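Q: Got a minute? One more chain.
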Amino acid sequence: MRSFLFLTALVVQEFSLLAKENSGSMRALIVYDKASSELGASYGADARRMEKSLRNIAKCAHIKLTLQVQKANGLSPKALDKWIQSIPPASCDTAFLYYSGKGAYVPGTNSPWPAIAYPHFTRTLKLADSEESIAARIQRRNPRLTCVLFDCYDKLIDSTPKEFSIPKLFPKKGASVGLRKLFLQSQGVVTVCSRPHERDAYAIRQKRPEGGFFSMVFLKFLAARRATSNEWSSLMADIGRYCSLKDPFKQIPIIMTQATKSTESQSRNNS
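A: Always. Here it is, folded:
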């Protein structure tokens, strides 16, 4: 009888630990420009790669993912507000927004940060640098981590950098400790754009447009270090350094990381 009770206690404890391990949550929105040109095909490739990668990251790190994919020309201020309001206040581990497109810059400002490339929406859909920016409005929902990535480019290059391969799908299985530390045990804000105003960023074109170089580097570094990546600042610094050195794709991302290791030991429950 005692052996039975002991084994039952062990099983209950294991289920309890498993429940905690699977309690993390992420709300993600992927936005991409859909033009009829090759650039449009490249932005679409970015969106598909990021969607599949986020789904695989969620499987690998046991994160409950709620994901939406949206063409930029259908993303009105009202639609963006609806997504932001869907983030459960103070009960979401990570809010993640990714945009691939040309990017627009608000006339008359000195800000290096872009907006989603629709002039009548730019004031509302600016990435950062104001109280009404996308990053600031997401922060007001108080997720533990706000992560906003913009890959803004309008140039295709018919080559790949030396010793660089286009990433395939993010691995579904493998070490997940680093991923959980990044997405579930970090707090603060990560805001990144592939280029500042009046600088260039690029996409790779082989037989067809393959997507933005910055987005590929982000996913490659994340996959390579998923066992050890526990700080956003060091991860993004490595990505920025790599992007700035690779001919002919040299580009200087804007990176603002205010994310630290969370003092909370458990993931938030997503109700």
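A: Residues 24-261 form a domain with the Rossmann fold fold (CATH 3.40.50.1460).
Q: Perfect, thanks.
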